[in-house]
Design a protein that fits this description.
- The complex is a heterodimer of chains A (464) and B (101).
- Chain A is α/β, with parallel strands linked by helices.
- Chain A has 17 helices and 6 strands.
- In chain A, helix 14 links the parallel strand 2 and strand 3.
- In chain A, helix 4 packs parallel to helix 8.
- Chain B has 5 helices and no strands.
- Helix content of chain B is 81%, strand content 0%.
- Chain B starts with a helix and ends with a helix.
- Classes of the chains: A alpha/beta (464), B mainly alpha (101).
C-alpha cells in the first residue's frame, strides 16, 4: 500500500468516527461520549495531516494551532450559556473565513506558478471562497446583533433587493470570467470583497428575532464551503465533514423556519423580524379585559394544582431567571405538584437554546417536553405558567386566519384550566401582534421582571 | 469531467444522505450542542490549512494559511470543549430525581 492510500484510509476511519460520534448525539445519555469520540477522531485526523505535510513550515503550523487552540479553549470555558448563540455565530464565521482563505491561497499558488486550473477545480475554489466570505461576514454581523453591538432591528438599504441582486450578479460574472478568460487572483479577491459586503448587507437586514434561522443557515454555508475546500484539496475527510455540517445546518434551518412559520427566502429577503420585544402597539385591543394578579394569588394557584406546565421564553433567559424557576419547581414538587416544562422550538435565540439554559439550572431533561409531546397534555393541566414568552403561545396562530403568524405551530397553553402569563408589560412580542390569550377568561397577567416575579412566587409558595 | 471529480461527488452525495439521516435523529433538546459540535466538525478546514501552509514558499500564503489554521483550531478546540461542557449539564440528575418522583 502506498503512502497516499494509507493516509486516505486514515482519513476514512476518522470520518467514520465523526459520523459515529454524531450518531451518539441521539440521546443525552450517550451524547458526551459521542462528542469525545468525534473529538478523538478529529485529533487523529490533524495528527495524520501533520505527518502527511512533513516538516516544511512546521513553525507556522504549530504556532497557528497553539494560538487558535488557546483562544478556542479559553472561550469554551468562559462563555455564558445565554451567550451560546453569539459563540456559535462567531465559530461559524471563523470556519467560513478559514475555508475562504484556503481557497484563495490555493488559487494564488496556482496562478502565480502560471498554472491553469481545470474547470472543476475552479468551481470548487470559487464556491469555497465566495460562500466562505458570505458566511464570515454574515456571521460577524449576526454576532454583533446577538451581542447587541449592532442594532437588532433590521437595517435595510434603499432598494435593498436590487442592491443584493446586482452584487450577486457581479460576483457571478466575476466567477464566470475565470472560466472564459485568464485566471487572475485579483478578480477572485474582488469577488471575495463583494461577497463580504453581500454577507453584511444580507444579515443587517434581518431582525434579531430571526436569528435562530440565520445562525442555522450560516452554519450550513460554512459546512458547504468546507466541503468545497475538500474538492479543492482532493481530501475526502473535508468533503464528508463539511457535508455533514451542511446537512445539519440545512435541517435546522428548515426546522426553525417551520417553527416560525417563515420560509427561508422570507427571512433572508423579507426584513420582517424586529429585534426588540417592545416594538409595536400595546395589546388588549382585542376587545377583552386584561386581569392583573398578585404574586400571592399565583402562589396559591400553583401550590394547590395537580399539574403545572411552565412555558419558558426568551424573556426568562434575558432576566437570568432560570435558576429561580427551578427553585420554584422544586418547591412545587415537594408539595406533590407534577411540574413539566413545555419548550417551543424557537424559545431562545438558537435551536435548542432554552433546553441548554434549563439544563444549566439543573432542570432534569426528562421534565423538558417538546411541543408535539406536550400539546395534548394542556387539557389535563391545571395551570400553564408562561414566563417571558408571547408569540409561541398566541392562539391567533391557530384560529385567526388573517393573523401574520397564522399557521405557526404554538403551544396550546389556553387549554389549561388556568393560565398565568408573566410579562414585563403588555408590549407585543417579536412579531409585533396582539395576543388574544391575554384577554381570555382563564388568563391572568402577572406583570414584572421575570426574576423578581419568580422570586416572589418562591417566597409565596414557601409560606403556604 | 475527471473520474476523480465523479468520485468526489459520490462521496458528497452519500455523506449528505448519512448527514440528514443521523442529524434528524438528534432530539431538539440537544440542538444547541449539535450546532456547537458541528462548529467543531467544520473546524476540519484546519486540515486543508495545514496542507496549504506545509507546501508553500510564498509569504502571503504562509500568512493567510496560518490565519486559517488559527481559525480552524479555534473551531476544533472551542467547539468540542464547549459542547462537552453543555452535554455534561444534560447528563446529571435524572437518575437521582427519578427516585423521589
Amino acid at each position: 500500500m502506498d503512502r497516499r492510500n494509507a493516509f486516505d484510509l486514515a482519513y476514512l476511519a476518522c470520518s467514520a468516527g465523526i459520523i459515529f460520534g454524531l450518531k451518539q448525539l441521539a440521546s443525552p445519555r450517550t451524547a458526551v461520549r459521542g462528542n469525545q469520540i468525534a473529538a478523538a477522531a478529529m485529533a487523529i485526523i490533524i495528527a495524520v495531516t501533520l505527518w502527511d505535510s512533513g516538516s516544511h513550515n512546521l513553525v507556522w503550523i504549530i504556532a497557528g494551532m497553539v494560538i487558535g487552540g488557546a483562544i478556542g479553549a479559553y472561550s469554551a470555558r468562559a462563555v455564558k450559556m445565554t451567550a451560546m448563540p453569539q459563540m456559535v455565530a462567531l465559530f461559524n464565521g471563523v470556519g467560513g473565513g478559514a475555508a475562504a482563505l484556503i481557497a484563495f491561497s490555493e488559487y494564488h499558488t496556482a496562478t502565480s506558478a502560471g498554472l491553469t486550473l481545470p474547470n472543476n477545480q475552479v468551481v470548487s475554489t470559487l464556491f469555497s471562497a465566495i460562500v466562505g466570505c458570505i458566511s464570515f461576514a454574515g456571521s460577524m454581523i449576526a454576532f454583533g446583533k446577538l451581542q447587541e453591538l449592532v442594532t437588532g432591528s433590521p437595517v435595510t438599504l434603499p432598494g435593498q433587493k436590487i442592491v443584493n441582486a446586482v452584487l450577486f450578479l457581479v460576483i457571478l460574472a466575476l466567477a464566470v470570467s475565470q472560466f472564459v478568460s485568464t485566471q487572475r487572483e485579483g478578480v477572485l479577491a474582488i469577488a471575495m470583497v463583494l461577497a463580504l459586503i453581500l454577507g453584511v448587507i444580507m444579515v443587517m437586514a434581518i431582525g434579531g428575532a430571526d436569528m435562530p434561522v440565520v445562525i442555522s443557515l450560516l452554519n450550513s454555508f460554512t459546512g458547504l464551503s468546507a466541503a468545497a475546500t475538500g474538492f479543492v484539496l482532493h481530501n475526502n475527510a473535508l468533503i464528508i465533514a463539511g457535508t455533514l455540517v451542511g446537512a445539519s445546518g440545512t435541517l435546522l434551518t428548515q426546522m426553525m423556519g417551520r417553527a416560525m412559520n417563515r420560509s427561508i427566502t422570507n427571512v433572508v429577503f423579507g426584513a420582517f423580524g424586529t429585534g426588540s420585544g417592545d416594538a409595536g402597539a400595546a395589546a388588549g385591543g382585542a376587545g377583552g379585559q386584561v386581569r392583573a394578579t398578585s404574586p400571592d394569588d399565583v402562589a396559591v394557584m400553583l401550590a394547590y394544582a395537580r399539574r403545572v406546565v411552565i412555558v419558558p421564553g426568551y424573556g426568562l433567559a434575558v432576566a437570568q431567571a432560570q435558576h429561580n424557576v427551578r427553585e420554584l419547581a422544586d418547591q412545587l414538587e415537594r408539595r406533590g405538584v407534577d411540574v413539566r416544562y413545555a419548550i417551543h422550538p424557537v424559545a431562545g435565540r438558537m435551536p435548542g437554546h432554552m433546553n441548554v439554559l434549563l439544563a444549566e439550572a439543573d432542570v432534569p431533561y426528562t421534565q423538558l417536553y417538546e411541543m408535539d409531546d406536550i400539546n395534548d397534555e394542556f387539557g389535563r393541566t391545571d395551570v400553564s405558567l408562561v414566563i417571558g414568552a408571547n408569540d409561541v403561545v398566541n392562539p391567533a396562530a391557530k384560529n385567526t386566519p388573517g393573523s401574520p403568524i397564522y399557521g405557526m405551530p404554538v403551544l396550546n397553553v389556553d387549554q389549561a384550566k388556568q393560565v398565568v402569563v408573566m410579562k414585563r408589560s403588555m408590549a407585543t412580542g417579536f412579531a409585533g401582534i396582539d395576543n388574544p390569550l391575554f384577554v381570555e377568561p382563564q388568563t391572568v397577567m402577572y406583570f414584572g421582571d421575570a426574576k423578581d416575579s419568580v422570586l416572589k412566587l418562591v417566597a409565596g409558595v414557601k409560606t403556604l | 469531467m475527471t473520474h476523480e471529480l465523479v468520485l468526489q461527488i459520490t462521496v458528497l452525495v452519500l455523506a449528505a444522505f448519512v448527514g440528514f439521516e443521523v442529524i434528524s435523529k438528534v432530539p431538539t433538546t440537544l440542538h444547541t450542542p449539535l450546532m456547537s459540535g458541528t462548529n467543531a466538525i467544520h473546524g476540519i478546514v484546519i486540515v486543508g490549512a495545514i496542507l496549504v501552509v506545509g507546501s508553500t514558499n510564498s509569504l502571503l500564503v504562509e500568512v493567510l494559511g496560518t490565519i486559517a489554521i488559527i481559525f480552524g483550531a479555534i473551531n476544533v478546540a472551542g467547539g468540542f470543549l464547549v459542547t462537552d461542557r453543555m452535554l455534561n449539564m444534560f447528563k446529571q440528575r435524572p437518575t437521582s430525581r427519578d427516585d423521589d418522583g
